[in-house]
Design goal:
The complex is a heterodimer of chains A (174) and B (140). By secondary structure, chain A is an alpha/beta fold. Chain A is 34% helix and 20% strand. In chain A, the strands form 2 sheets. Chain A has a 5-stranded mixed beta sheet with strand order 5-4-3-6-7. A two-stranded antiparallel sheet of chain A has the order 1-2. Classes of the chains: A alpha/beta (174), B mainly alpha (140).
C-alpha cells in the first residue's frame, strides 16, 4: 500500500492533536496595554469625591513617579487591594485614583468602609481615560514616571506580594 | 437554606447591578442622527472586540465597557473621524487583538497564504490526474 494514502489521515490526526493540546493550555485572558513606554494623554477629570481633588495630566508631570489606580466602588477585587494600596501609601507612594462609572455617594461609602489611600481621585464616567491608556478592566494599576510616561501596567488587584514589585518599578521610574 | 440562597444570589448580583448605577454613556445605546454616520459606526462596531467579553463584538455586547467603547466610536465618527483611523487608534492601545478585521502582517500571513497554497496544490493534483486520464483515453 502506498504511504501517501495515509497522509490525509495523519494530517488530520496531527490537527486533532494540536487542537487537543491547545485546549489543555491555560488561556491568557489579559489584554496588555500597548501604551507602556508612551506618555499619558492630556486629560482633566472632575473630582470623584468631596475631600479629594480631581486628576489631570499636569499632576503626573511634577517630576515624581506615581501610581495611577483604575478602580470603582462597584468592583469587588478593589476591596481586596485596598489594604495593599494603603501599605504603598504608608511607604510614601502618591496614588492617583480614577473612579470608573461611579456616583459620588458610592465613592464616599467605599472610601469610608475600605480606607482612602488616594491623593487625588478623578471621575471617568465613560471609560475615556481607560481607553486612552489601553486598560481593559478594573482594577488596574499603572506606574507613571515624573514626566507622565507610562512605565508599567499591573492588571488585576494589587496583592501583598505585588507591593515590593511596584516599589521597585517606582524606583526604576525615578 | 432558601433564605441563604436568596442572600447569596443578591450578593452575587450586587456588583452587576452596581456597575449600572450610573446611566450608560450618552451614545452607548443612542444611534447617531445622520444615517450614513450611524451605518459607518455600526460597521466598525461589529468588527471591534469587546475587551470584557472577548468573544463578542462591541455591537453585540451589553457590558458597560462595550457601551463606553460604542460611545467612543460614535462620538469620534460624529466628529468626522475616519472609521479606519478609529480602529487604528484602538489597535495602538490594545494591539491587533481588539480588531476582528485581520490585516496581513508578519504573524498573520499564513492565514492568507495557506488557502492559496491549498488551492494551488488541489489544482496541481487535479491537472495531473485529468492529464493522465485523457492520455489513457487517447491510448485506448
Amino acid at each position: 500500500m502506498r504511504w501517501t494514502l495515509w497522509l490525509p489521515l495523519m494530517l488530520f490526526a496531527g490537527f486533532v492533536g494540536l487542537a487537543g493540546y491547545q485546549l489543555t493550555q491555560p488561556k491568557d485572558e489579559f489584554v496588555e496595554s500597548k501604551m507602556v513606554g508612551k506618555p499619558l494623554p492630556a486629560f482633566d477629570l472632575r473630582p470623584a469625591a468631596l475631600n479629594r481633588p480631581g486628576a489631570s495630566l499636569a499632576d503626573f508631570q511634577d517630576g515624581k513617579p506615581k501610581l495611577l489606580n483604575i478602580w470603582a466602588s462597584w468592583c469587588l477585587p478593589c476591596i481586596a487591594e485596598a489594604p495593599h494600596l494603603e501599605r504603598l501609601k504608608e511607604q510614601g507612594v502618591e496614588i492617583v485614583g480614577v473612579a470608573i462609572r461611579d456616583r459620588p455617594q458610592d465613592v464616599a461609602r467605599f472610601l469610608d468602609q475600605h480606607g482612602n489611600p488616594y491623593a487625588r481621585i478623578g471621575a471617568d464616567d465613560v471609560s475615556a481615560i481607560q481607553l486612552e491608556i489601553g486598560s481593559s478592566g478594573v482594577p488596574e494599576t499603572f506606574v507613571i514616571d515624573g514626566q507622565g510616561v507610562i512605565r508599567h501596567q499591573h492588571i488585576g488587584d494589587v496583592r501583598a506580594s505585588d507591593v515590593p514589585m511596584l516599589m521597585q518599578k517606582l524606583e526604576e521610574a525615578r | 437554606m432558601k433564605r441563604l440562597l436568596i442572600l447569596l444570589a443578591v450578593l452575587f448580583a450586587m456588583p452587576v447591578l452596581a456597575q449600572q448605577s450610573l446611566p450608560p454613556a450618552p451614545l452607548a445605546y443612542q444611534q447617531l442622527d445622520d444615517p450614513g454616520q450611524e451605518a459607518a459606526a455600526q460597521e466598525l462596531m461589529e468588527t471591534l472586540r469587546c475587551l470584557k467579553c472577548q468573544s463578542q463584538s462591541i455591537a453585540d455586547s451589553d457590558a458597560p465597557m462595550a457601551g463606553d467603547m460604542r460611545h467612543q466610536v460614535r462620538s469620534r465618527i460624529q466628529a468626522g473621524e475616519n472609521p479606519e483611523a478609529i480602529r487604528q487608534w484602538l489597535v495602538e492601545r490594545y494591539g491587533d487583538y481588539v480588531s476582528y478585521d485581520p490585516k496581513v502582517s508578519s504573524t498573520t500571513w499564513p492565514l492568507f497564504a495557506v488557502p492559496l497554497a491549498l488551492f494551488a496544490l488541489v489544482g496541481l493534483v487535479l491537472w495531473r490526474r485529468m492529464g493522465k486520464r485523457s492520455e489513457e483515453g487517447d491510448a485506448s
